[in-house]
Amino acid sequence: METLKILENKPDLNWEYDEDADVLYISVGKPRPAVGADIGDGVIVRYDQKKKEVVGITIIGFRARTLQSIGSAA
Predict the structure, then answer these.
(1) Is the pTM of this model over 0.85?
(2) Does any domain span residue 44?
């Protein structure tokens, strides 16, 4: 299996939430060009192919998922 670096250092995480689209964007360091891989359930991992490292994650339907989980946990 090929190695993929995931948060090897303790980098700054940046995030942006698009309330209208209900999408949470999390970037490792400043956002940068990357390839997206849909890993299912509305989660997209962004990675730098040259460095073979994860540079971000996108979660579609973040608010809806959170409210659903909180509601089911109560």
Answers:
(1) no
(2) yes
